[in-house]
UniProtKB/TrEMBL annotation:
Keywords: Membrane, Transmembrane, Transmembrane helix. The keyword Membrane applies. Gene3D superfamilies: MmpS1-5, C-terminal soluble domain. The chain crosses the membrane at residues 15-33. It comes from Lentzea atacamensis. The keyword Transmembrane applies. This is Mycobacterium membrane protein. It comes from the Bacteria.
Length: 145
């Protein structure tokens, strides 16, 4: 008597139902993500920015700084403004969301000449400026999307 291979008992209706549910979940996810502006908006595409301020001659005390940074690299949010006094040379790494402005300004406490720079990944100069003696200096750029 010949031995016949047994086929597993597969119900095509169950398979179709599972595939249908997966299709609905996938489509719903895509629609929701697009409704909220896409993956970059939901997850946030961010740039690693380094702000630098130097002075000539060396400053006796701190300079007044104002710069922009994103509070959370994983969320698309407008940048917040940070204001503080700090000694120079000043270097600070921040995160700025794609399409947002990166900006730093510094006001000397005397007749120093201040220079600012904005660097991408600590290397590529995105903006640079040198102020007049005793005057505020500002560097700004908008990050690309």
């Amino acid at each position: 008597m010949p031995v016949h291979a047994q086929r597993p008992n597969v119900c095509p209706m169950k398979t179709l139902v599972v595939l249908g549910v997966l299709a609905v979940i996938g489509t719903t996810t895509v629609v929701l993500v697009n409704q909220f502006g896409g993956w970059n908006t939901l997850m946030g595409k961010a740039w690693a920015i380094t702000y630098e301020v130097t002075t000539e001659p060396a400053a006796d005390g701190p300079v007044q700084l104002r710069y922009l940074e994103n509070p959370d690299r994983y969320k698309k949010q407008p940048p917040k403004v940070v204001t503080k006094a700090a000694p120079v040379p000043f270097t600070h790494e921040v995160v700025v969301n794609a399409g947002e402005k990166a900006e730093i300004s510094a006001t000397p406490n005397g007749d120093q000449v201040l220079t600012c720079r904005i660097l991408l990944d600590g290397e590529k100069v995105l903006a640079s400026a040198t102020g007049a003696r005793g005057q505020k200096v500002t560097c700004e750029t908008t990050t690309s999307r």
